[in-house]
């Protein structure tokens, strides 16, 4: 991959007289999405024609962020190529390479030399409403917090999959990464979306590798809690997370039915007696044979070949896929 560079654009939005930036962590491999991630990174998995990392970026841009540091894998050339043609010319994107996937604290430490002041940090696979991002930013500004976390109540059986906080009187008193259910301080999850003062960056060099060999961001947040305090949070009921193929199906279904995207039906050709049932998105270069029923709630990425007498419903068909004659696909992701 090329030396870290910067797409052309403007400086970031003023934050109380200062500039504010965003950092997006997009170097993850997406092992639980295999084999969908054999030929592209998790960040570049499509949600109705846009990589999920772009969907995350849009929620930040809608809240006035226009300077972004994006941490990417050295094996992901596609992501830089994609954002060279990003449709918002006033958004500046600087790419920083993470040579090894060593956790969020390591990724943030690589972005740290480019961070000047208060910043918002997001993973590339976590989508929350733009209104929630706005509330995070406003709460951070109003309270004078050093860190403002995105929080969500979850079923206690799920606490071992996420960071969990102890919440008391509007403050985060403790944060634990993936605790056992019996050891969890609560059922309140810390989502991978934060607003940080630059104070947090000073603790990153002190983070030690976890038993799984990663440098956990939660350890740096806990140091901030213990030494300086002023860590708060904002709750959300709504979020979409991309972890596996079922999530990909659900997120695309959500955007088909609630996302407000302009519909696209752009197949190269459609055979006789084929029925297309909305909501539906079909990208350019796709050829559909005769006698098919496509939809509802179907997303077909570009350059696919659909045979004759095929039924596709509640499904995602990824780019360059060939579907043989007579196949029935319901509730699946096919690549």
From TrEMBL:
Domain Nucleotidyl transferase: residue ranges: 22-238
Alphabetic keyword roster: Nucleotidyltransferase, Transferase
The organism's place on the tree of life at top rank: Bacteria
InterPro entries for this protein: GlmU-like (IPR050065), GMPPB_C (IPR056729), NTP_transferase_dom (IPR005835), Nucleotide-diphossugar_trans (IPR029044)
SUPFAM superfamilies, per the entry: Nucleotide-diphospho-sugar transferases
One Gene Ontology MF term: nucleotidyltransferase activity
Sequence ranges assigned to domain Mannose-1-phosphate guanyltransferase C-terminal in this UniProt record: 278-331
Residues spanning the membrane: none
Protein name (database record): Uncharacterized protein
Species for this entry: Litorilinea aerophila
Organism phylogeny: Bacteria, Bacillati, Chloroflexota, Caldilineae, Caldilineales
């Amino acid at each position: 991959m090329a030396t870290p560079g910067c797409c052309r654009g403007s400086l970031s939005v003023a934050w109380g007289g200062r500039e504010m930036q965003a950092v997006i962590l997009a170097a993850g491999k997406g092992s639980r999405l295999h084999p969908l991630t054999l030929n592209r990174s998790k960040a570049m998995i499509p949600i109705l024609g846009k990589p999920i990392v772009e969907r995350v970026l849009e929620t930040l841009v809608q809240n006035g962020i226009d300077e972004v540091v994006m941490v990417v894998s050295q094996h992901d050339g596609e992501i830089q190529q994609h954002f060279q043609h990003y449709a918002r010319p006033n958004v500046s994107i600087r790419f920083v390479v993470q040579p090894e996937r060593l956790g969020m604290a390591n990724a943030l430490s690589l972005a740290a030399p480019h961070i000047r002041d208060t910043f918002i940090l997001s993973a590339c696979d976590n989508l929350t409403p733009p209104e929630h991002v706005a509330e995070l930013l406003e709460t951070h500004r109003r309270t004078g917090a050093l860190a403002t976390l995105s929080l969500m109540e979850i079923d206690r059986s799920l606490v071992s999959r996420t960071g969990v906080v102890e919440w008391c009187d509007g403050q985060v008193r403790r944060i634990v990464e993936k605790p056992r259910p019996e050891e969890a301080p609560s059922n309140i999850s810390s989502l991978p979306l934060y607003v940080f003062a630059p104070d947090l960056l000073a603790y990153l060099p002190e983070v030690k590798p976890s038993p799984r060999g990663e440098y956990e961001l939660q350890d740096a947040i806990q140091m901030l809690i213990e030494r300086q305090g002023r860590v708060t949070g904002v709750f959300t009921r709504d979020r979409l997370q991309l972890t596996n193929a079922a999530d990909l199906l659900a997120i695309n279904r959500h955007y088909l039915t609630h996302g407000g995207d302009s519909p696209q039906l752009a197949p190269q050709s459609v055979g006789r007696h084929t029925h297309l049932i909305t909501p539906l998105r079909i990208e350019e270069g796709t050829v559909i044979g005769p006698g098919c029923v496509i939809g509802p709630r179907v997303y077909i990425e570009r350059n696919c070949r659909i045979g004759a007498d095929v039924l596709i419903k509640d499904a995602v068909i990824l780019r360059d896929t060939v579907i043989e004659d007579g196949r029935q696909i319901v509730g699946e992701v096919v690549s």
